[in-house]
Amino acid sequence: MQEPSIDAVVLDLETTGLLKKTDKIIEVGALKIRGGEVVDTFSRLIDPGFPLSEAVSNLTGITRDMLAGQPQFTEVADELEAFLEDDILIGHSITTDFAFLKKAFVDAKPKGYVFAKKGIDTLRLSRVFLPADEKKTLSAACAHFGYTFKPHRAVEDARANWFLFQKLSEQFGEKEPGLFEPKELVFSVKRDTPIMKKQMEQLQRLLTEKDLELPVPPESLTKSRASRIIDRIRNGETKDLLG
Predict the structure, then answer these.
(1) DSSP 3-72
(2) 212 plus 170 within the same structural domain
(3) 59 and 179: one domain?
(4) pTM for the full model?
(5) What per-residue confidence (pLDDT) applies to 2?
(6) What residues make up the domain containing 230?
(7) Which of 87, 111, 208, 239 is positioned for an S-S bond with 9, CB 3.0–4.6 A?
(8) What does 134-154 look like in DSSP terms, one character per residue?
(9) Is the pLDDT of residue 243 over 70?
(10) Residue 90 sits in a domain of what CATH number?
(11) Closest CA to 123 of 97, 100, 104, 99
(12) Closest CA to 19 of 95, 84, 100, 80
């Protein structure tokens, strides 16, 4: 069993939303585990390239001012890649964080870059081993073992997740060792491209018709984000176009 001597990275991300192909990472928190001990920490705020929505600020406590002047993901990609090494990832819904991370790396790195990882999902383990009538959020699962914290900041969540993994391993690892084996993480992504000329014309026409303004130049948008904004305008969701 791996719990006393596991080598891994415990990962948590905060993002601008839940859409893996268009939302962006705003904070990375990671703990490097060697022999079952935390030996290093990675903590970075990330500028997503567009203003943060009020809803995300309220949830995370991360504000637009906090992100102002922070590096974009392309500027920290090499440092983060070096930190992750070839380690397995541990996370609460690790497939979600892996998807956001893979998309960010694919967009930041040269064409043909491959990002592959194995992972252990503490959400999946919590659903298997914790009482069915209890919530399985990270904070609820940790509270089951007597650990409380304020969620939705990346490093604090990573620390809580490491605590949770250790407790689950201690209590259930010998009974169900196969469930604690890392699994290949899978998410298919395409490299993002700049907004197309046709999209630009369409977007500018809609902005004019609806008397709307974007807080960023339209030419700075990617193809996928421009498509999302166009859809939001058409659906009347104009309060926070970049949210």
Answers:
(1) TTT--EEEEEEEESSS-TTT--EEEEEEEEEETTEEEEEEEEE---SSPPPHHHHHHH---HHHHTTPPP
(2) no
(3) yes
(4) 0.85
(5) 42
(6) 197-234
(7) 87
(8) S--SHHHHHHHTT-----SSH
(9) no
(10) 3.30.420.10
(11) 97
(12) 100
**SS3 assignment, position 203:** helix
Q: Identify the three-state secondary structure at position 222.
A: strand
Residue tagged 């006393």 (tokens): 4
Residue 215 sits at φ, ψ, to 5 deg, of -80, 0
Q: Are 191 and 21 in contact (CB under 8 A)?
A: no
Written as six digits, the tokens of 25 are 């990472």
pLDDT digits (tens, 9 = 90+) for 186-226: 999 888 888 888 999 999 999 899 888 887 888 888 888 88
pLDDT tens-digit readout, 203-214: 999 989 988 888
Token duo for residue 221:
């948008």
Average of per-residue pLDDT values in the chain? 92
Q: Is the per-residue pLDDT at 53 higher than 80? A: yes
Q: At what angle do helices 94-108 and 73-84 cross, to 10 degrees?
A: 120
* Spatial distance between the Cα atoms of 214 and 132, rounded to a whole number of angstroms: 46
Residue 56 buriedness (CB in 10 A; 0-12 / 13-18 / 19+): buried
Distance (Å, rounded) from C-alpha 212 to C-alpha 219?
16
pLDDT of residue 217: 84
